[in-house]
Amino acid sequence: MVRPSTDADIPAIAEIYGYHVEHGVASFETVPPDEAEMARRRCEVLKRGLPWLVAETEGSVKGYAYATPYRSRAAYRFTLEDSIYIHPAHIGRGIGSALLPQLIARCREFGARQLIAVIGDTDNPASIRLHARFGFRYVGTLNAVGFKFDRWLDTVLMQRPLGPDGEGTLNFRL
Fold this sequence. Notes:
This protein is α+β, with helices and mostly antiparallel strands. The protein is built from four helices and seven strands. Strands 1-2-3-4-5-7-6 form a seven-stranded mixed β-sheet.
């Protein structure tokens, strides 16, 4: 079941994200934020009217997805960036495929024109395939822009229009 996140989901969200910070390259953070920081980040997203969703099975959160402004400058106000994190024991079980289309729909309803995926490292084929499956197209790679686990990491950029011909509505509220 995919649903809007609640305050009660913060411990699970922090645990999932913390795992990815400590063990993966989907995030370029190197120190996992605590629950209070994750709650603050979620609050900032929700304050803007943007979606923060969780996927719940068997009574517990197995993954989450949210959208943030792509960049802070006014000219980018019609473009959002997505983030998706899955509990490590549930990767490859379709949770990302349940979250991403609902996130896309909420971003479209919000009035965004484009959705950008900034994927940590070229060696992240699951995220690249997931985004491609839901209409994102590859637009470039930023080579060696992050340094984590004693190696240089790339960032893969993918983009998806949210309306016909890349059009979004103009009721954007950022």
